[in-house]
Design brief:
The structure holds 2 protein chains of 2 kinds. By secondary structure, chain A is an alpha/beta fold. Chain A has 12 helices and 11 strands. In chain A, the strands form 2 sheets. Chain A has a 9-stranded mixed beta sheet with strand order 3-2-4-7-1-8-11-10-9. A two-stranded antiparallel sheet of chain A has the order 5-6. The radius of gyration of chain A is 19 Å and the shape is globular. About 1% of the residues of chain A have low confidence. Chain B folds into 2 domains: 32 residues, no CATH class; 97 residues, OB fold (Dihydrolipoamide Acetyltransferase, E2P) (Beta Barrel). Helices cover 5% and strands 38% of the residues of chain B. The chains are: A alpha/beta, B mainly beta. At the A-B interface, α4, α5 and β5 of A face β4, β6, β7, β8 and β10 of B.
């Protein structure tokens, strides 16, 4: 894979975050959901809407044209560029990535990244009606994760109980998070005994499809004073990386299901930030299914390849472990409104690094990683740093 | 193999005694022979769409193979590619028994989805049929088999590639 050495410019800070609870909200349309995350983010940053110079909106399912524009117009028509971003499950994190690059290059002082989604119920497919994949049977997100799970168990000796423990941990974290779609806790046995979706993944090992929204306000560090922003609560973006799939010896037939596409993005992010995996205090990864968390943590070099299942069983990825993973409950318990999930991860990371995560707080959290995947082998890796 | 022509004959009660008075198929009916589910990935090798080979491209520069269409090599971006048959055999890389199918799935439930590695490298997802679930094993040899499936939006049946244990 050809990778440019990333040259960032001005230091960029996250100065405000907002989140609408994830779940089902039949009385709110997409624009309304979006705005209910944007307003708290602006309030959190203590900036005015008219100070936002550009906005990027992540969403996937079609809800009318230019939803970013129509939802933000409720705040006033300021004429700034508004970009609607679709990058599958990474749409929100891609919007955040764009906001970062808009500021670091000096184009804009302050940017809004926000995302919202109302995902229909039932298994998620990625192809259009009558596409060949519909007949072939391979267009099934959870079946793709199941193939990875089966192979992982064969290669590493991981038992089904280790995969189930990922859900047990996620639910324990979510039980302390009022924004989570699923807050009930389960035992390993209850997870394994839930309805089988695609062997080895049971229902509770697959993330719920959800509705929700998230937003973040970003600003150049050198411009904080100009806008009267309190620097003590700002969190620095140390790396912002977006990649798509590489050949990896297999080609693109089942590319959405390849496990280790994150690694090249992670290496770029560590190089860009000068931060090494040992420095990371907590991480949010794309756990659309339990196996996803295990493989992403390995691809980020936070636990050795083939051993994340052991680390999970030993409690290393729990809130009290040495590398807490998905501290807010992750996709598995927060749920997964595609356009919002990537920014939800930024919200949790910022909240933790500020020391404002309440009962979920990871002690002395200084550096956090957020990794989000999407169909098309999209991967984003962001590294955030306190101070 | 039951073709649409046979099914129609049965529906009309003509399969037996009336067989003699429908001696030939009009030319227009030749269109109801199943068509490849994806002509850029599966080339049919006989007239009744019961056999075929997976197809793709091989790069003359880096020798990487791609399943399906390619203008540029997916590995090295060269345009020096040759069309190749990728054959009809492979090894089961992974599999899952799907109990909740995706929208539009026209087959039985549950079904087995296999991730199969071809000798030339690419992997191909398809249903695995003619197997006992308990006998499935990663690393087992599988071969291609074609099945005719009615089209979602009308038109000729689709010849869909599937795997079965060797």
């Amino acid at each position: 894979m050809t990778m440019n050495k990333i040259k960032s410019g001005r230091e960029v800070m996250v100065v405000g975050v907002g989140l609408h609870p994830f779940g089902r909200f039949p009385d709110k349309d997409l624009g309304q959901l979006a705005i209910e995350a944007v307003l708290p983010a602006l309030e959190d940053a203590a900036v005015k809407w008219k100070d936002i110079a550009v906005a990027y909106f992540g969403h996937v399912y079609y809800q009318g044209m230019s939803v970013g524009e129509t939802s933000l117009s409720k705040l006033g028509l300021t004429g700034v560029p508004i970009v609607n971003v679709e990058n599958a499950c990474s749409s929100g994190s891609t919007a955040f990535w764009q906001a970062y690059w808009g500021i670091t290059t000096g184009l804009y002082d302050m940017a809004l990244a926000f995302g919202a989604e109302k995902v229909p119920r039932g298994p998620v497919t990625v192809t259009a009606e009558d596409a060949p994949e519909r007949y072939i049977g391979g267009d099934h997100m959870m079946a793709g994760y199941a193939l990875r799970g089966k192979r992982y168990m064969e290669e590493t000796g991981a038992p089904a109980t280790a995969l189930a423990q990922v859900t047990v941990k996620a639910r324990q974290n979510a039980a302390m998070n009022p924004f989570a779609h699923r807050k009930d806790t389960y035992t390993i046995e209850e997870v394994l005994n839930s309805r089988m979706i695609a062997d080895p993944l049971t229902l509770f090992q697959c993330c719920p499809t959800s509705e929700g929204s998230a937003a973040a306000v970003l600003c150049a560090r050198e411009d904080l004073a100009k806008y009267g922003i309190n620097e003590s609560r700002a969190v620095s973006v140390a790396a912002a990386v977006l990649t798509s799939g590489d050949y990896n010896g297999r080609g693109a037939d089942h590319s959405a299901f390849s496990p280790y596409r994150t690694e090249p993005a992670a290496i770029q992010a560590y190089e860009m930030s000068g931060i090494s995996p040992e420095d990371v205090d907590l991480v949010q990864v794309h756990d659309a299914a339990t196996i996803g968390e295990l493989q992403q943590v390995e691809a980020l070099h936070l636990l050795p390849f083939g051993e994340a299942w052991k680390g999970t069983m030993e409690g290393r990825t729990a809130l009290t472990g040495d590398i807490p993973v998905n501290t807010d409950g992750g996709l598995l318990a927060m749920g997964h409104p595609f356009g919002a999930s990537g920014i939800r991860m930024i919200h949790e990371t910022v909240t933790q690094l500020r020391g404002e995560a309440g009962p979920r707080q990871v002690a002395n959290a200084r550096i956090g990683v957020a990794q989000c995947s999407g169909a098309g082998d999209v991967t984003t890796v962001h590294i955030l740093k306190r101070g | 193999m039951v073709t649409k022509r046979h099914q129609q004959a049965n529906i009309l009660g003509m399969a037996g005694q009336w067989h003699c008075i429908i001696p030939t198929m009009p030319d227009s009916e030749s269109a109801i022979t199943p068509v490849s589910i994806d002509p850029q990935r599966l080339r049919l090798t006989n007239d009744d769409a019961s056999t075929g080979t997976l197809i793709g491209f091989k790069c003359n520069e880096c020798e990487a193979s791609v399943f399906g269409p390619a203008i540029f090599c997916q590995q090295c971006t060269s345009t020096d590619l040759k069309a190749v048959d990728l054959g009809n055999k492979g090894i089961l890389f992974s599999f899952t028994i799907v109990r909740i199918p995706p929208a539009g799935w026209p087959g039985e439930i549950p079904y087995v989805l296999g991730q199969v590695e071809l000798p030339s490298g690419p992997q191909v997802l398809a249903e695995v049929i003619n197997c006992e679930h308990k006998d499935l094993k990663i690393g087992m040899g599988v071969e291609l088999v074609l099945k005719s499936v009615p089209a979602e939006n009308g038109g000729p049946d689709k010849a869909v590639y599937k795997w079965r244990p060797v």
